[in-house]
Each structure stands twice: as structure tokens, then as C-alpha cells.
């Protein structure tokens, strides 16, 4: 049998039109990265000590400015850091059982005065300044505080402030007696509306005792950061639990 020759097949190279790529346009981020690589790594050991020295000088200058502000504040008698105008209603330093506390009435917030903001149909709010190691008035040193919010809601606002130094022979019972006098004064001014007691941190525990002793004089109490039971909160999440303090605080969790 004659072999059948297969037809010659010519392999044709498939040619394609050259792909015209678009010109790469560098993004702003790429430009910044490129500019950052211009500096040679060898210069880093020289710039780091200089930057460290400059930051240390700025840190010392910040401490100096802070100390100057503290000295000026002490020379002024350490007035409350309230961002609101106020008048003093009662000064417990002149009580028969003196204590370093005073009752203030907030009279003005910015351009708004008492008559413009206060709705007498709403219960008054007594904000107790927490004595937790900082200066007096920290509970109302900015507009967006409990004082400003309550005032803008139309509540008559009163503020219990403390003085840095205690009176001679002062006890915690004297402080409690002074706070009770303050609540009685507000109850007389607003006989139809028992005052709302507001306390943060140490002040929260103070108003808890105060509310128990002023039964029938005060209304609801608001506590912030003042846990009343050692089992409140969740383990490992709420380090302010009283049980945490008895067990060494948060250190025990960090040691495990």
C-alpha cells in the first residue's frame, strides 16, 4: 500500500499587535515613599540623638510651664476650676462643725444666665466635686460636663466644691454633716422637687451615704465610676472593682 503523505502544515507564528501600556502615573503615596527613601540609612544614627535631645528639651519646658501655672494658681488661693459663673450659698468652713466644703449655685453658662436656661418645673441637680487627688472644680471645668449638660437641659444646677486644705480637727463626719446641710438648703429652695444627687468616683460613694441619711430630702442619685459591690463588673475587664483593690488591683492579672 502506498503511504499517504500528510499535507505539509506550515506553522504560522501568531503575531499580535504590541500592547500599548498606559503611562504609569505615580500616586501621591508613591511620591512620599520615594522621597522618604532619598535619605540614606547611614544618616539615621546621627539624626536620632539630635531628635531625642530636642524632644527632651521640649519635655522639660512643658514641666516648667506646668509648674509656673501651678504656682500662679496657688497664689490665687486655688479657686475652683469651674468654667461657669457661680455664687457661694453656703461655706461649711464657718459652720459649728467646720469642713472644707462649700455650696455654689451656677448662675451663668457663657452668655446664657440662670433666668434664660432654668426651668423651675424641673428638679435641681447637685453635682458633688470628687476629691480624688486633683484640684477643686474638676467636675465642671469644661462646658461638656455634667454641669453644662444639666444646665442646658433646664435643670437648676448647684455645685459642691471643696478647698485643698481641711479645717482644724475636721473629720469625715463633719464633711457628711456639711453635705447634709447643703441638701437641706436646696430642698428649701425647691420644696416641690427633691434634688438629684450626682457624684463621680469618690463623690459617688459620698452621695450614697448622703442619700441614705437624707431619706425623703433627696431624689435619685447618679453614680459614675463608683462601684458599690465587690462582685460588680467582669473579671479582667473592670479593674475598678473593689475586690480588685483587696486582691492587689490589676497587678495580679499582669503577673500571670
From TrEMBL:
SUPFAM superfamilies with a match to the protein in the record: alpha/beta-Hydrolases
Protein name: Poly(3-hydroxyalkanoate) synthetase
Pfam families assigned: DUF3141 (PF11339)
InterPro entries: AB_hydrolase_fold (IPR029058), DUF3141 (IPR024501), PHA/PHB_synthase (IPR051321)
Organism: marine sediment metagenome
Chain intervals for the UniProt region annotation (Disordered): 1-25
